[in-house]
Amino acid sequence: MTTDNKVVLFADLLGFAALTESYPLDVDRCGVGNGPIAGQFVHIFDEILKKPSNDLAHAFSGFHSSLRGVLSIARMNHPFTAITFSDSVFVATTHAYEAANIAINLLHAVLPQKIPIRIGIAYGTFAALRFRSDITADSGDHAAQFLGTAIVRAHAAESCGVKGLRILLHPSVMPLLDDIHHNPVPTEGRSNSIRYLTCTEKEQLNM
Hints:
CATH superfamily: Nucleotide cyclase, GGDEF domain
CATH topology: Alpha-Beta Plaits
Shape: globular
Mean pLDDT: 84
Low-confidence stretches: 35-40
Distance between the termini: 46 Å
Radius of gyration: 18 Å
Structural class: alpha+beta
Strand content: 15-25%
Order of helices and strands: EHHHHEEHEEHEH
Number of helices: 7
CATH class: Alpha Beta
């Protein structure tokens, strides 16, 4: 099996542990996000049914329904591998601008719902070895085996300590920004180019 270099995006739902500890696990409302846009209406359903608000269900459902919609659009434009689990997702693409577009679209989808996420993007090795799911009437055995430096670096970028709702680039991405295949020159009516800002020292120290 060959190991390809990929650009990997890692997106994480912020505050998920605290939400899980603070709200009851309402599986029915968490599952509302199985529809393409239903996650945006969890609170509306609560009002209609006179149920108390459940921010855990809202965040979980909204994150996954938004992610599903964003990936559906991206899939029409380029191939990728997406691995979703719990409150986070890894997406491996061939080019940097593809990962950046997915990251931007995902932020645009969740922010109006007041769902906070942070994203890291990195470049390096990536291999998806095996995915398996064996479900019986009373048990389940699931496995997602994937690894590579891009996975480690994308997670490191997201969790580097810089606070806020951000798309953070790992240093491994920076050389790609001078590569026209990874960062195309903007054309009239369309811009795939990646523009970035360097974090100030105060931001890096969260001052």
